[in-house]
Amino acid sequence: MCALRAYAKVTQKRFFIVLLLALLILLFSFMAQLAFGAVTLNPLQVLEKGIGEILTSTTGIARYRLERALAGVVVGAALALSGYLIQTTTRNPLGDPYLLGISSGALFAVVLTFALPASAITLFVVRPLAALIGGIIAYLLTLLIASKAGMTPTSIVLSGVAVGTFFYSASLFPQYFILRDIHKVFAWSMGSLVVVNISKPTAIAVALIVCTLYSCMSRNVLNALSISDDFVRDLGRDPTKERIILTAMAALLASLCVAYFGVIGFVGLASPHFARRLLGSGDARYIVPLSIVFGASLLSLTDVVAKTVFYPIEVPVNVIVSLIGAPTLAAIMVGMRKHAKG
After folding, report:
1. Engineering a disulfide at 224: which of 127, 232, 284, 330 sits with its beta carbon 3.0 to 4.6 angstroms away?
2. Rounded to 5 degrees, what are φ and ψ at 181?
């Protein structure tokens, strides 16, 4: 008993240290977003002026940089929480909205909405709803195929890759044959924070807050789900119902990000693993907030790289994130192999 208390104390202390470092990285990346661009500006002045421009509904470089910085934080956090929920509910360390086909399914549905007239209803009602439906359908197809192949972590990922490839390819047809504007879907599939206004990150932030609160209140359920459904039943909860709710939240967060900013992969995969590795624990009460902060930091930093390193050419942020995510995926798979041998 004393050993457990000592371990809990060490874990809690380590959590606060890691969280503090993660928040400092997030603050640095946020300020870098405000400072760097075509010209380098004082980030504090940009922040002050940007808030003023948003409140007065005026347009300027300060407002654009602030909105883009906020988008990087919110989208990164949402994708990280989505990835964590998928990994936990499926007990699959390779779980991620991108790898499991959710993002591609949402992309296909979003592409169909390009044929509709541009309006506030299309942007904030039709497109997010279509993305959610497309993402959920793709995820259900992934699970259906994986169930026929043994429902192992590897079969789930391979099924997701197959479903994602199908929906990505399908998304090209409406643009190529109907709208004849193939560049639109390519831009959306690459993921970017370039086209942004305050309404987009605000909508994602509302969903993120709700999902985060529910996840924090369900931390015991999440811990139990990561081990066995029997542990969930011991808590007096229905594991099937909880899994449906949590995966629906994961799909909602990922689909909203696709609806507004396109496909951004690997943030949901890498962030929870960074959190677990640095903390040395998988306790949901610590991993949920750490994953969110790491996701926000990761996307913010990569967006700074995307818009500055190759200036005047701006690289889609998904390209930079993938350069980090691909080695992360390889490391996870190697770790799984070693664990299986052990």
Report:
1. 232
2. -135, 70
